[in-house]
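Memo to structure team: turn this sequence into structure tokens by end of day. - J.P.
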Amino acid sequence: MNKQHERTPQGSATKRRTAGRKNFDTAPTIISGKNYLSSYLDDCYHHTCLSLYQNPPIGEIGLEEFEVWAIERLKILNEIDSALKRNKPFQEIELIVLPMLNKSLPLILSKDQDKNTENRRKDYYSHFILKLCFSRSAELREKFVKCETIIFKVRFESMSGVEQRQFVQHMNLPWEYITSAEKAEMSQQLYTSIQPSLRFQLNLTDEISRRDYFEKEEFIKIPFEYVPELISSRSVFLKQGHAFVPKFQQINLLTLEFTGNLQKTLISTSHAFPTLDEEDRLIPILNHLGAANNFLEDDSVFDELMNSEVNSVTVKSTKITRNFPLCASHLMDGLTSAHHLKYLARKQFSLFLKWIGLSVDEALKFWASEFTQTMGMDKFEKEYKYNFRHDYGLEGSKIKYKPWDCRKILSQPRPHAGEYHGCPYRDLSKDSLKAQLKSMGLKDEEVYGVLEINSKGDPTASCTKVLELKTNGLVNEIVTHPNLYYDRMRVYHKKLDDTEGETAAEAES
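Reply from structure team:
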């Protein structure tokens, strides 16, 4: 077979993949004109600022828009996920997310129809693009549903009462707002059924405020099978197969509808993804956006950490160790008490120290000063020196090794007796972890808060909460890497030291 025939199958495959594609640089943005797209999006958003994203997007966008729009939405999901991991209540999340939505994905309607169409188009496409990214594993699908549901709730709560009613009516659900006469006829039963919710859910502590709220509240008539949870908790009045739900409860029902729909479409997308014939265009972008698994983990931070303040002596000083995450503190404690660490712990700690700025020469001094307290220098140089130089890319394949991130650490075997590698939030007993957290300077109530988060089985959420507490709430970022934690603490303490220095100088003058 000659070379020309050898190339034919590949060339044919490429032609098949690109056949029928339009050039995004020259093709019209909208497939059937602005009026058609505007009308289509009006239907998708029910002429309001909210959508269930049930229909696929239409029209064409460029690859740059494809990626940029997805990244902008991904940043918002990142903030939401961070807030959820820190157990922030919805009211606080709403204060964080709403300004971001209004800036990056605004849907506030204006008289400019072209602007409304473009904003909706960006929001609609970015949702479906990230749906492709997050459909590929159960864990990602769960994260996407949680975060997108928060966006749905935030937007719904920001709408006027008229817009909310209009949205509900366009959903074609078997819901019906009752009349004032119907409300008056069932007044006592309705008030009795929702009184506990007014007291405990809306925090209306006195009878007068509860009565005032009830008089102004609207009620929705819904088939009872739609609200099993409200029925089981006796939070609604039932009559002739219908539940009468107060309007303030409708967001919970809408959320269930939105979540159920999104879960189904994510599963369908996951089944369709392997057949996506876009290896030369969309797949590389989606793989890049696959950083969604770590929610925009910033790899560039490590290059910024190489500095001269860390050496074989200062690495054990309070100025440096106060920035350590708990896993690094645990490793340092193990090293200084046993004057030795086993392979996995050495690897984990050596790479961590390397990327906070400990040079290879200073690292060898540091490790030798500890190890030679239980062995001779000859043994250290013969059995251990090569490994530390290897970590710095000076031996063997000479790879520039990066420090282990949280996923890598959690993938390692759990430590046995005398081993210190791993993640303390996963590996330590509750009492041991409690003692470690107290040694970090956390107050009792803060320690119990971290332990409660840790009991849910997400070690990174616990570490994230500790970072928030240690920085007095100034750092709100998901910890996905020990060196990321170190860098944020280092910056925080530097600003704190600079402020204290300026205050002292002013006092002296």
